[in-house]
Amino acid sequence: MRCDGKRPQFGTRFLTDPRQVFQHNAWDNVEWTEEQEASAKKKVLENCQPLPSEKQEEYENRANEYWNDFYTIHENRFFKDRHWLFTEFPELCPQCSPNNVTHQKVSSTGRCVQDEERAKQGAAVSPINVNFPGATASYRILEVGCGVGNTVFPILKTNNDPELFVYCCDFSSTAVDLVKTNPEYNLGRCFAFVHDLSDVEANYPIPDGTLDVIVLIFVLSALHPIKMQASISRLARLLKPGGVMLLRDYGRYDMAQLRFKKGRCLSDNFYVRGDGTRVYFFTQEELHSMFTEAGLEKVQNLVDRRLQVNRGKQLTMYRVWIQCKYHKPLNANCGCNKRGWSRTDIL
Q1: Alpha-carbon separation of residue 73 from 34, 66, 159, 178 (angstroms)
Q2: Going from the N-terminus, what domains does the chain have, and what CATH number goes with each?
Q3: What's the pTM?
């Protein structure tokens, strides 16, 4: 922890002496040996026999039920609030502190965007005349797969900007109910709703071309792989020109993937957990392909290889996560007319 109270951005603590491995709880950018890589590939191949098609259909058809059961059992006790988000993704609180009530608009790289530049992009656009939640806000964030609010509520606490509005949605109605009953839920700053990310025909309560930031934290991996591209492309339409999509998710050969036993594989790198929920493990190339196919441009696409340590039990655990930032080009067509929203309906 730094003296300013912020968690250091990952990539700053290196294990140079293996004898010191248990001196800290985690080490960044840990390089794998060729033997480790080969062992991981071998383990995945050993457990890659897919389940019968009827079982796969069952997990697909009952996905909502499994996630509702998950949140019914765990409620808000399973996940910790993700305060690290503001270190890795400053776009969620640009140039702000907990006591700062204004923000400077930022580009996908985190640099300030001058008001006249925004004005130029919206020169042909009239003020909003559609009644939707957050219509009068000037900075809008959507979190997809919000769970019980472990990302949304830290954003609302940290970013006090009165012009901020945060949307959050989840496949699970149980999770959304838990968000809405949280005492920190404020309809003046936040709107939670149930939504199936994989259903690209389902309406969002937000016009296309109106979001500054979309956040996907360990959520895309829960979809069936054949539905991922269409889901990302649909989300991209919601972004303003210059808006950014932020993702953090499981990477190939993460410890969680290597722990799956036989009888849990649905297809290549796609598995079902014991509670019926599913998870996919990505490569950088797969995610880059999806984002660029959706018309977005790369700002960041990196692998976070982290060695987590249980000092009490003297255990080491190798985690692999992928972190991405992709933005919509400033000259992109917002695609507003595809949903029936007029260009005079949005900022």
Answers
A1: 41, 11, 31, 12
A2: 22-90+134-328 (3.40.50.150)
A3: 0.80
